[in-house]
Amino acid sequence: MPNSTNQFERLRCIKRIDETSDASTFEFEHLDQRPFEFQAGQFLTFEINHYNNLLYRAYSICSSPTQANSVTIAIKRVPGGKISNYLLDNLQAGHALPAMAPAGKFTLEANKTTNNLLLMSAGSGITPCLAIARYLLDTQKKTNIHFIHSARQASDVIMSSLLTELADTHSNFRLTLILEKTDNPDYFQGRLDSHLFKQLVPDNSKQTLFICGPSLYMKSVEEIVFGSGFNMDYFHKESFVAATKAGETVFSDVNHQITFPALDKQFMANDQQSLLDAMHKAGIKVPYSCKSGICGACKCKVSGDVVSSSNEALTAEQIEQGYVLSCSTKANSDLVVEL
Q1: Helix count and strand count (H, E) for the chain
Q2: How far apart, in whole angstroms, are the C-alpha atoms of residue 150 and residue 180?
Q3: Are 56 and 125 contained in the same domain?
Q4: What's residue 193's pLDDT?
Q5: Which residues of the chain have a pLDDT value below 50?
Q6: What total of structural domains would you count in the chain?
Q7: Of 99, 128, 151, which marks where a domain is finished?
């Protein structure tokens, strides 16, 4: 049976490919080898036992739903990256990791789209954009795709041979690489700015843009795109923000009682701290990844009055049933909570 809310299921790594000097792709299958159910652009949240501490990270799927017997993710080494670096040093074919069901709304189905698609990425942000492109090409959708990827140099482009293959075999797939260091006249040298964007996209009136990458890259591109007069209703970004430390001390005189019937546990929560932080401080280990209301890993069901700043990762049905994102929710009364 597929995963239900907040449940983890072990996935087996069946292939590892070292794509660049600091990034690898990992292909996973269900232990019972049943197909995956997901949409292009979604992600998996993994549970990693990091030296006897359970930590959680979300990684976008870069494979297409048309090849549903397995899913592939890419992991890039980052300075000080506790989990990404740990997985790159240790994860091999044959190993298994617990993961939640695919989730996320960085998808064609969840957003306004046109038949002209801009896919813009940098670094490992290439993964969900690549999944979207592969799905559209596999299903032969009548969509013109312009894939614009930024990197330091050609050797840093993850899955570069696949990108080149897609450009060579599909007339509706155009590839543009913007590299900080290059002598190749086929590539653009430097960084994306408003002048280059206008050169690459002279008519943006009927475009849809999906973007994923480091936060500074996405902020810069968003400013460029907005300044070009782009219709921002068709601007869609995937933002994974580094998780902050759970359980931070927050000062307020207002506290509410939180009850967990399944754990036979009660504790007090400050009305100025997130429900996630309060639960972790009380020793209740709720999975989380982004802590920004995007990944959905920390959702739980509550009875009582709450204030939520995000429900982006929840469906209308889940909201109706009383689910909230605990990282983005504060108690406004006593609560009864179910995981």
Answers
A1: 7, 19
A2: 8
A3: no
A4: 96
A5: 1-5, 241-251
A6: 3
A7: 99
Last residue of a domain, one of 99, 129, 155: 99
Contact 150, 213 (CB under 8 A): yes
Closest of 18, 30, 27 to residue 88, by C-alpha: 18
The domain spanning residue 329 has which CATH number? 3.10.20.30
Are the CB atoms for 5 and 249 separated by under 8 Å?
Answer: no
Query: Domain limits at 206?
Result: 116-238
133 Rama sector, left if φ>0, alpha if ψ -120 to 50, beta otherwise: alpha
Q: How far is CA 58 from CA 137, 228, 240, 256, in A?
A: 25, 32, 8, 31
Q: What is the dihedral of CA 208, 214, 218, 220, to 10 degrees?
A: -150
pTM of the model: 0.81
- Quote the CA–CA distance of 76 and 12 in Å, as a whole number: 20
* Helix/strand/coil for 37: coil
Helix (H, G, I), strand (E, B), or coil: what is residue 150?
strand
From residue 108, how far is each of 53, 96, 136, 264, 291 by CA, in Å? 36, 30, 10, 42, 24
> How much is the pLDDT for 252?
53
**Average pLDDT value over all residues in the chain:** 90
Q: Are residues 128 and 202 in the same domain?
A: yes
Collapsing DSSP states into helix, strand and coil, what is residue 131?
Answer: helix
